[in-house]
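queue> holo job accepted (zinc ion)
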Amino acid sequence: MSESTERFVIEIGSGTVAHIIDMDAGALEDDDRFSLSPSAPGEKMCSRSSRHPRYRRVPLSEFVTQNEIDKEGFEGDAPGEICSYCWSNTRDALADEQERADDDVSERIGTIGYRLRWKQKGRARDEWYDIVVGPETTMAELDRLVCRFTTLDDFHLRMYGLEDEYLDSSINMLPDHQYEQAGDRSDTKASEMTVGEVAERGALWEGDRLSLVYDFGTPSHYYCIVKEVYEPDELDGVLDDIDVIASTETAAIVREKRPQ
Ligand SMILES: [Zn+2]
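queue> job finished
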C-alpha cells in the first residue's frame, strides 16, 4: 500500500473486525473541546460502533503485513479482518479526492509556466539546458532558445512533438520560415502557437516530455522533461530573480550544464 499508509490507521476494538481511522480528518474540528472525556484521534470511516481512546491503533501497513493481507491500496472488497463499511467508504473518499485533484490540474494547465530541461538523446548526463517558459510564450520563442544550444538554424528542418512522438508529431507546428516554404493547411506557424496551447493538448505536467527531431535524413533527437510547474504569479519572480543565460520576451534559459 502506498502513501495512504501514513494517513490511515487500523483501530482494533472489541468487535470482530477492525475499523479504519483517517488520521488527517477531524484534526481541525474542535467539537470535543468542551468534552471532559478524552477522545480518540482521527475519524472512523464508518458509524458502526463506538470508539474508545484505549483501543489499540496500528498503522495500516503494519496491520496489512501482520495479517498477510494481499492488497494494493483500497481496491476490491475488504479483507476479512477489516470492516467492509470502513473499507468501501475509504475507497470512495480516496477516489473523490483523486478526481478533485485531477480536475484542479486540468483547470490549471494552459495558465501555468514550466521549467523544461532540454537534453540530447544519448548524452543527457553531459549536457542540459533549463528553459523557463510561460503559457503565452510562443513556440517560436522556445525554438529560438533551443537553437542557441543545438546549433540549429533556418536550414535545418525540425519538428516538435508531444512525449515520445518521433518523426510524427501531433502538434503540427512548423518554424515560421519552414511554414512559408512547406507548410500546408494542417500546420500552424510557431509564432502563432503558444506553449499554453501545446500544454493543453498534451496535458503537460511535471515529469512529462516534449520532443524535438531535426535533420530527418539522419535524425537527431532532443527532448525535454518538465522539471517544474509555475503558477502565473511565481513565473515573473523566477524570470526576474535569476541571471538568465539568454532570453526572449517571455522565456529564458536559466541554467545549463555544458560539457567540460
Ligand atoms: Zn468500520
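queue> The chain has a mean pLDDT of 88.
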